[in-house]
Amino acid sequence: MFLRILDRLEELLITFLIAAATLIIFVAVAHRYLVGIPLLYPLLFPINLSWAQELCIIMFVWMAKFGAAYGVRTGIHVGVDVVVNKLNPPWRKATVLFGLLCGALFTAVVGTMGAKFVYGLMHTDQVTPDLELPSWIIYLCVPLGSYLMCFRFLQVARNFWLTGHLPHHDETQVEGVEIDAPGAGVGGITR
Amino acid sequence: MSAAIIFGLLILLMLTGMPISISLGLTVLSFLFFMTTVPIESVALKLFTGIEKFEIMAIPFFILAGNFLTHGGVARRMIEFARTMIGHWAGGLGIAATMAAALFSAVSGSSPATVVAIGSIMLPAMLSVGYPKRFAAGIIVTGGALGNLIPPSIIMVIYAVSTSGAVYFGPAGERVGSASVGQLFMAGMVPGVILAIMLSGTTWYRAWKNDYPKIPRATWGEAWHAFRESIWGISLIVVVLGGIYLGWFTPTEAAAMSAVYAFLIEMFIYKDLRWKDVPKVLLTSANMSAMILYIVTNAVLFSFLMTSEQIPQAMSNWITDSGINWITFLLVVNLLLLLAGNVMEPSSIVLIMAPILYPIAVKLGIHPVHFGIIVVVNMEIGMCHPPVGLNLYVASGIAKMGITELSIAVLPWLITLLVFLGLVTYIPELSLWLPRTLGML
Questions:
Q1: Which residues pair with A175 in a beta bridge?
Q2: Residue B49 has what pLDDT?
Q3: Per residue in B200-230, pLDDT tens?
Q4: For residue B41, which residues of chain A lie inside 8 Å, CB to CB?
Q5: What is the value of pTM for the model shown?
Q6: What secondary structure letter does DSSP report for B169?
Q7: Residue B5 in contact with residue A78, Cβ under 8 Å?
Q8: Cβ neighbours, 10 Å, residue B426
Q9: CB contact under 8 A, A114 and B277
C-alpha cells in the first residue's frame, strides 16, 4: 500500500515537473514578444518573468533526480549487455545482481554525500540568484532522489533474485502503430 | 598509467551490464577513493552543478516534442506526402520510404521508433507491389539514419554541451570557441540532404537495374492534399531552425516552443492525441530525459576526473608529438566511434568520447562544428551496422527476418552510408559552407 502511493507520487511529481517547465518557458517567451505590442504593453510590462529560466532549471534538476529513480523501476538505464547475455545462467544471474548492487552502493554514497552537503548549506543563508529561495531546499533533491534510486535498485535486485525478472524498457513503442497487424493502410499507399 | 587504470575500470564495470551512468560514477568514486588523496567531497559539488545549465534543458524539451509526434498518424501523413511526390519513379515506394523516414526521424528524434513507424506501414506496402523482401527491409533499416543530421537533433545538443566550457587551443596556439547548438543544427542541413539523395540514389539504381514494378503517378490533387496534411509536422524543423537563426529564441527556448507546437498540432490539428494520453506522453518523456540527464551528470563527473588527471592534454600532446595528421586521426576516430556504436547507445558514446577526442581534434586544426557532424554521422551508422545495431534488431522483428539475412540485405545502403561518412569526414566544407554563408561561424 505504502509502495503503491510512493510509485504514484513519483510518477505524478515528474509528470508535473516536465509539463510545468515547458509551460513556464513557453509563457516567458510569449511574454517577451507580446510586451512589444503597444496595446498589451501597459498590461504585461509590470509582470516580471526573469525568474523563469532559473525555475525551469530547478524543475528539470528535480525531474532528473526523481526520474532517474523512476527509470530504475522501468529499466530505462541501459548498459552494455552483449557480454552478460553470453554467460551461462548462474554466472549471468550473479553478474546482473552485482551490477544492481553496485548501483545501490553508488546511489547510497551519492545520497549520503548530498545529505552532508545539504546539511552544511542549512547553516548558511545562501539563496538562489533570481528566486531567492534557500539553496538547501533546491539541493534537497540530491539526497532524496539518490536514496529513492538506491531503494529502487534494491527493489529490482530483490525481484530479480526471487523471480529472475528484470524490468525492460521498450524504446520502439509508437502510438497508433500495430506491429501485429501489418498491412494496415497498405491499400491507401499502393493504389 | 592512471589513464589505463581509469579506462580499465570503466570498461570492466561496463561489461557487467550495469547502467553506463552508474559505471561512470563508480569509476570516478573508486579511483578518487583508492588511488588519490583528493577528498571525495570535492566531487560532491559536481553532482549538483553537472546539469545546471540552461543549454542542457533543450534535451528534455526536444524529447517531449519528439514523443508528441512519435505517432503512427504522423508517420502515415509523411509517407503519403513522400509517395505522392516521388512514388511513380523506379523504386519510388522505396525512395518514398527513405524520405518519409528522414522527415519522421527528424521530428520524432528516435531512430528505432522511425524503423517501427515507417517500417510497419511501408514494408507490407513495398512487398505488396512486388519488391523483394530483402530490398524492402534494407531500405527500412537505414531510413532512420537521417534523423540526427536534420534538426532538431538531440545528439547535436549533447555534443555541444559536452564540448563547451573548457578553453582549448588550435594548432597555432589560438583560442578555439566550441560549437554552438545553432551552428551545429545549420551545419547538419547540407549533409542531411546529401545523405537523403545518396540513399535514394542507391534505392533508385537497384530498382531501375532489376526493373522492379512501379506504381501509378499520383494526381496533383492528391499531392496537394498530402502536402497540406504533412506540412504541420514538417514545419517543426522550420520553427526550430528559423527561430534560432533569426534570433527569436535561444536553442533551449526553441526546444520548448517546439514541444508546445508539437502538442498543439497533435491535439488540435491532427487530433491523434486524446487528453487522457497526455500524462503518459509526459511521463515517458520525463523518464527518457531523466535517463539522459543522469548520464550527463555522471559524465560531467567523469570528465572532471579526466581533466584533473590531465588525460586529454597528455593525449593531445602525444598525438601531436607523434606526428599523426588530421587525416589519420579522423580515420581512427571513425573506427573508434563505429566500434563503440555497436555496444553503447549514442548519447553515452558522445558524452564519454567527445570530451576526450575534442581537444585533440581542435589541436589538429579540425573545426569544432565539422567534428560534431562527423560524430553525429558515426552515431547514426552505429545504429544500423551489424552485428548488433539496434535498428537491425528492430527491423528484424518487423520484417520477420534473421539478423544475418538482414545484414546482407542492408549492405548496399550501409556501403552508401560509409561512403557518405568518408565524404563528410574529408570534405569539411560540406558541413561548414551553409553556416558560414549565413554568417553563423
A1: B71
A2: 66
A3: 999 999 999 988 888 888 888 889 999 998 9
A4: 113, 116-117
A5: 0.91
A6: E
A7: no
A8: 13
A9: no
Out of A22, A96, A103, the one facing B256 most closely (by C-beta) is A22
Whole-number Å distance between alpha carbons of B200 and B32: 51
Residues 6+ apart with CB under 8 A from B26: A102, A105, A106, B13, B18
Who among B61, B113, B290 is closest to A71 (CB)?
B290
Which three cell numbers, joined as nine digits, stand for B98? 527513405
What residue of B is the nearest CA neighbor of A178?
A: B120
Pairwise CA distance, residues B74 & B88, whole Å: 22
Q: Which residues of B touch A171 (CB under 8 A)?
A: 110, 112-113
Nearest to B302 by CA among B6, B42, B4, B79: B6
| Å between B158 CA and nearest CA of chain A | 16
Name every chain B residue with its beta carbon within 8 A of the beta carbon of A143. none
Residues facing residue B141 across a β-bridge: none
B398 to chain A: which residues are within 8 Å by CB? Answer: 179, 182
Question: Which pLDDT score, from 0 to 100, does residue B411 have?
Answer: 92
How far is the C-alpha of A1 from the C-alpha of B356, rounded, in Å?
48
A102, pLDDT greater than 90: yes
pLDDT at A178: 62
* Among the partner residues B54, B256, B291, nearest to A77 by beta-carbon distance: B291
Q: Do B21 and A83 touch (CB under 8 A)?
A: no
pLDDT at A113 over 70: yes
Closest approach of A4 to chain B, Cα-based (Å): 17
Count residue pairs from A and B with Cβ separation < 8 A. Answer: 238
Per-position DSSP letters for B172-213, written without gaps between them: TS-EEPPPPHHHHHHHHHHHHHHHHHHHHHHHHHHHHHHT--
| Contacts B352 to A, Cβ<8 Å | none
Q: A182 pLDDT exceeds 50?
A: no
Taking the Cβ of residue B107 and every Cβ of chain A, the question of whether any pair is shorter than 8 Å is answered with no
| A191 pLDDT more than 70 | no
* A14 in Cβ contact with B290 (< 8 Å): yes
B38 touches chain A (CB under 8 A): no
Contact B286 A177 (CB under 8 A): no
DSSP calls for B82-138: HHHHHTTSTTHHHHHHHHHHHHHHHHH--HHHHHHHHHHHHHHHHHHTT--HHHHHH
Element (H, E) at A52: helix A52-74
Q: Indicate whether A115 pLDDT > 50.
A: yes
pLDDT digits (tens, 9 = 90+) for B364-401: 989 999 999 999 999 989 888 877 778 888 888 888 88
How many helices and strands in chain B, by DSSP H and E?
A: 21, 2
